[in-house]
């Protein structure tokens, strides 16, 4: 499963070019990799959706955020609206940029997870530690707290976690793949033992993933894919990463 998180980037020309270069590079329509998704800024949902349809691509549209249960929320987009425009499959929830810039805490994020689950939109819950927490050896403690959002929830088999160490996002720094693998196993164990239905989630790695380092993550047993920011803004590079995942059959 590979998801492009375009964040606050894109315009109509970029989107047209993105799909041309993606099509030039992608092998087999990315068919074996499982889910491939793009989370564009909401204002470009239509452009992206039309390109996917026109080119007959196996790419899902995702959202970068969703409104919580309150509809008194200027600027937000609700689950009902998302369902009415297109069938949105996945929604990124609790990205560290939203935790920091919009003060989203566990309560707010949990409310959004509920909104996703009640609307058949599969949440991708982002978790991860700061550099300081990492240095203090607090990574697992922090992640366990962030995952407590899912405690006693009946999550779906498509509920996904993205492990995104904050210090790795957009910095070019990454944890070593063995460490990532260890944290992913930890996440799977915690969610499995705390959810009502003992569901083991898929866990994506996010944070400075590129076509150069993707293979090292994808070869790890517990890494089920990637959430990609900067490198996903190029259709060619994103296709290369999808091709790499396709070629590794684990
Ligand atoms: P990055 O962003 O790939 O640019 O580090 C990842 C993310 O924030 O989801």
Automatic annotation (TrEMBL):
Location of this chain's protein in the cell: Cytoplasm
Keywords for the protein's UniProt record, in alphabetical order: Cytoplasm, Gluconeogenesis, Glycolysis, Isomerase
Any one biological process term the GO annotation gives: glycolytic process
Keyword Cell membrane found: no
Known pathway: Carbohydrate metabolism; erythritol degradation; Carbohydrate degradation; glycolysis; D-glyceraldehyde 3-phosphate from glycerone phosphate: step 1/1; Carbohydrate biosynthesis; gluconeogenesis
Reactions it catalyzes: D-glyceraldehyde 3-phosphate = dihydroxyacetone phosphate
GO (cellular component) term, any one: cytosol
EC number: 5.3.1.1
Chief subcellular location: cytoplasm
Subunit structure: Homodimer.
Protein name (database record): Triosephosphate isomerase
Natural source organism: SAR86 cluster bacterium
Name of the coding gene: tpiA
């Amino acid at each position: 499963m590979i998801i492009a998180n375009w964040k606050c980037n894109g315009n109509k020309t970029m989107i047209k070019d993105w799909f041309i270069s993606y099509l030039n590079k992608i092998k087999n329509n990315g068919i074996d990799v499982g889910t491939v998704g793009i989370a564009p800024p909401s204002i470009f949902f239509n452009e992206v959706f039309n390109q996917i349809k026109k080119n007959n691509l196996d790419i899902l549209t995702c959202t970068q955020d969703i409104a919580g249960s309150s509809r008194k929320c200027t600027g937000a987009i609700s689950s009902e609206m998302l369902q009415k425009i297109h069938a949105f499959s996945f929604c990124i929830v609790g990205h560290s940029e939203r935790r920091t810039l919009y003060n989203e805490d566990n309560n707010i994020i949990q409310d959004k997870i509920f909104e996703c689950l009640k609307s058949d939109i599969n949440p991708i819950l982002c978790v991860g530690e700061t550099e300081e927490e990492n240095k203090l050896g607090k990574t697992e403690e922090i992640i366990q707290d962030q995952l407590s959002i899912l405690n006693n929830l009946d999550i779906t088999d498509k509920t996904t976690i993205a492990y995104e160490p904050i210090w790795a996002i957009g910095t070019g720094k990454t944890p070593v793949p063995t460490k990532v693998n260890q944290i992913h196993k930890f996440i799977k164990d915690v969610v499995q033992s705390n959810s009502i239905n003992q569901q083991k989630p898929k866990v994506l790695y996010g944070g400075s993933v590129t076509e150069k380092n993707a293979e090292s993550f994808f070869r790890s047993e517990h890494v089920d894919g990637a959430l990609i920011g900067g490198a996903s803004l190029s259709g060619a590079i994103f296709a290369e990463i999808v091709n790499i995942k396709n070629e590794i059959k684990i």
